[in-house]
Amino acid sequence: MNSFGLTLTALCCIVVVLGGLPFSSDAQLDPSFYKNTCPKVHSIVREVIRNVSKTDPRMLASLVRLHFHDCFVLGCDASVLLNKSDTIVTEQEAFPNINSLRGLDVVNRIKTAVEKECPDIVSCADILALSAQISSILADGPNWKVPLGRRDGLTANQSLANTALPAPFHPLETLKKKFSDQGLDTTDLVALSGAHTFGRSHCSLFVDRLYNFSSTGKPDPTLNTTYLQELRKICPNGGSTNNLANFDPTTPDKFDKNYYSNLQGKKGLLQSDQELFSTSGADTISIVNKFSADKNAFFESFETAIIKMGKIGVITGNQGEIRKHCNFVNKEFAKLGLITKASVESEEGMSSSF
């Protein structure tokens, strides 16, 4: 997960796959799937993430984002984790992901620990889903029972990653269409966008809003003028677009409902954020107001939406495989003959619309 006007280096953080994929209503997922085969999986995932977050609190947002990016393409099958190989065109080099994905090494640490406890049992796709839930909890956010039993896919799709995701400069109707195509409704859109209550974004995603919105030579009129000046200090005109800004300037590492009060105050960092509140006559406005006033309503809707999203396009039963290493399908991994380190990650930028 560069600028709003001309580049596409980062697209969305919480969208799902093309309409042709199943919405997984028939998927046999169960929160107690590993009750007998790997009963310690939750505690193992939590321990690794908790330790990492002590020195890198931003990782919590990164892992939530990574789960979203997995489900964007080919369903929630860990395709985003696959490295480039003779048979794989990696999604990690797609516009929404290149130089922005974080957490790949953390997922590999979790996988190593899980494999030691219960080898060949837990999929990388389920590790991503659990990591998102546990990261939310550690950031004081919502908690949900994660349906488990996903299998890992055998391929990736970079071109789909490049085309299937809404961009941070899309208008509301485009955002709604992208979500509805995947079985997600308007409430899901507003709730899942609330993941931007923590994390960071590269200046590249919103710098046009500060100086040259829609090629007008002026800032975005929906942007709070005081907030505009604060952002200009972080992202000077002509300066580095790799600088990072908090999605939420008040509680940047906490999963709370401030995202919605920020929108009410015209302090949505990305255009696609502010569209939810500043689009005249939009039905999303009342939802933003509801979530701003009632944290429980937001959390409940987020839980419903992320569970729904986490079931899109999943493979179960005898489909796919349980990868031995999350960055390689098992056939490729067997050819390597040894454990290969995950590709080196870039600095986290939360460079995505969702």
Notes on the protein architecture:
The longest helix is centred in the N-terminal third of the chain and has 15 residues, at 41-55. The protein has 2 domains: 41-164 and 312-336, Peroxidase, domain 1, CATH 1.10.520.10; 172-305, Peroxidase, domain 2 (Orthogonal Bundle), CATH 1.10.420.10. Residues 1-26 and 339-354 have low confidence and may be disordered. 55% of the residues are buried. The protein contains 14 helices and 2 strands. It is globular. A two-stranded antiparallel ribbon has the order 1-2. The protein has 354 residues and is an all-alpha fold. Helix 7 crosses helix 12, helix 7 (186-193) crosses helix 13 and helix 12 crosses helix 13 (295-309).
What would a concise description of this structure say?
The chain has helices at residues 41-55, 59-72, 104-117, 124-138, 158-163, 172-180, 186-193, 207-211, 225-234, 258-264, 271-278, 284-293, 295-309, 330-336, and strands spanning 200-202, 244-246. With 354 residues, the protein is mainly alpha-helical.
Notable traits:
354 residues; mainly alpha; Peroxidase, domain 1; Peroxidase, domain 2; 2 domains; two-stranded antiparallel ribbon; disordered N terminus; disordered C terminus; calcium; Peroxidase_pln; iron; Peroxidase
